[in-house]
Write the structure tokens for this entry.
Amino acid sequence: MTTLPSDTRMDVATDPDYAAINPTAVVGLAASVVGAIAFWKWPLVAVPAAGFVLSLAAGRKIRRSEGVLAGRGLAAVGMAVGAILAVTAAGYHALIWHSEQALYKDLAARAEAVVDEMAAGQYEKVYERMPEEWRRQQASGAEALRARLSPLLEGAGTLVSRRLVSVQTLPTKEGGLVAPAEMCVELKRRILTLTLWFQRTEAGRWELVDVGGEETFESLMKFPSKREPVAVPGPYERDHDHHH
């Protein structure tokens, strides 16, 4: 057998007769490529990140093998693809998270304002928050809104506290989006769960389209009375068959 010069030992890996491809390099490249699924769900960012780590480890092992192992090109591509997909996917999900947090913060502030207006008996202001087209479809005015919602607060005393319990975005049958914001509202003599429905317009704005609610079980235990439990389902929830 002919002995190769020492300065060519690192090039032996280019000849399949002398070197075997490092399997870690193959696995790392595969994981990096499959890592494109990371844009689907944020935990899947771990897939291209794992591909990068495996490719990095494979590259180091290949270099230290002094030509016994091949696959430096695969390892290099795996590192590049894994790093790019991991970083871009992480940035994509971070942007979505930031946008969602900004949206939820905005809807929470609007929901709190609506609850404050209801507690103050300012149903005209609540009605004015609803889009004109929606008001026209419902064919009802501020007084109709007052008549429907006032039983929730009638005789319940002043507002003690209100807090957002949950808010989420849901698709509609028409292809749009709605965001029900559930509020826990504590009054002096009643505790309510109010659901405020916000709908995204074609222009991308979110507008209040409905309010509904009911008295909580905690309220019935804390403030027992002979009256029937208060429950006011909103027309939007009935018409669109949304449950949560």
Observations:
- The chain has eight helices and eight strands.
- The two ends are 77 Å apart (CA to CA).
